[in-house]
Amino acid sequence: MSNMNAVTIDRQTKTAYFGTGVLLGQAYWQLWCQGRFTIPAGLCPFVGIGGHTLGGGYGLLARKFGMLSDNVISMEVVTADGKVLHADSRLNRHLFWALRGAGNNNFGIVTNIRTKIHDVSYNLTLVHKKYELKYFREVFAWQKWVKSNPDRSATSDVLFDGDCVQMYVVITEIDQAKSFRIANDIHKRMPRNETIDIRNSFHFIEMVKYFAKVIDPLGREVNDSSLLGKGEQTAVFAKVKSYYTQRLTTDFEMKTMFKLMNEAPKGTFVLFEMQGGAIADFKSTDTAFFHRKANLFSVMIGYDTPDYSNSDEGVKWMKQFYDETKSLNSGYSFFNLADEDLDNWLQRYYGANSHNLKKIKKKYDPNNLFTYKQSIPLS
């Protein structure tokens, strides 16, 4: 798939064609250089756009522009019988529906994706605050700001990572005065004892590099060359579990999380990601991506390390955090954060869309050629 890496941009229609082997970093760079455009995709520059889109595709701009799969206009797909099909809202529309949220190696091999692209020629505003872990409960007042349904130009994460807790807010607003009002609103809600307090404006491409360093297990700087997938990429052991939360956490639940964080082995993390905005403009059945309304934030519990040191301990802690916070768990998980340990994965990933997905699977792959541990079953 890595050789399917062509990017074609149409500035007039504000659309782009991507081969499914294109990495997100390559997509961001090409779009930026050819008109300061972007797509609402994820933060890791080394993830392929194909799998990311087909699983839904969450990113920092999702509250403003929707999931990446919501921005797809059409796809080219090779089905089990060797046919090359064009899928859009009119041609092979049921297949098109399924590919946007459940398309990962279930119905065929997607070779090309056409999406909307968005202007980001203006500066984006970043708020980054870092605190000692002992202030976690005060920092998690963040959830009340999330509950207030702030302007959809704002999105935010809270990250527990080792001995600290960090909050990030990105505001994609052309009006800089409005942008700083939103930034000051969240600033006023946070405790004043931060060890890092950044409020600044960046070009979008610089924001991509900034967050690529944040999520790198080794904390390496990301330059133009590495953004394009050039240079050395270190293999890591990584595992994640996820769920969506639909309400504010109770005091008891926060105490439980805080206790677990204080016991966390090196390499573990918990990422709370704001939901809502344009994601919730769609019904749960509009595409195969089911997770729309009512979600307040998502929770990703992870462990990564450049080697396999403490992997048993890290994975054990992840499962403990997942189990002991189950009262927050809505019963649904995000397929792009695939979890092979899930027993009821079909329901957790696809909810009420599971039945239709089985029917579409039977039509386009009746002999179950495209199969793996969590592929859509025929029945």
Automatic annotation (TrEMBL):
Check the record and name the InterPro entries matching this protein.
BBE, FAD-bd_PCMH, FAD-bd_PCMH-like_sf, FAD-bd_PCMH_sub2, FAD-linked_Oxase-like_C, FAD-linked_Oxidoreductase, Oxid_FAD_bind_N
- Could you list this entry's UniProt keywords, alphabetically sorted: FAD, Flavoprotein, Oxidoreductase, Peroxisome
Q: Which coarse location class applies to the principal site listed for this UniProt protein?
A: other
Write the lineage as a comma-separated list: Eukaryota, Metazoa, Ecdysozoa, Arthropoda, Chelicerata
Q: Which cofactor does this sequence's record say it needs?
A: FAD
Q: PANTHER family recorded for this chain?
A: BINDING OXIDOREDUCTASE, PUTATIVE (AFU_ORTHOLOGUE AFUA_1G17690)-RELATED, FAD-BINDING PCMH-TYPE DOMAIN-CONTAINING PROTEIN
> Could you give one GO CC term from the UniProt record?
peroxisome
* Stated family: Belongs to the oxygen-dependent FAD-linked oxidoreductase family.
Name the UniProt record assigns to this protein: FAD-binding PCMH-type domain-containing protein
Q: From which domain of life does this come? A: Eukaryota
Q: GO terms for molecular function, please?
A: FAD binding; oxidoreductase activity
FAD-binding PCMH-type domain residues: 1-120
Task: State its location(s).
Answer: Peroxisome
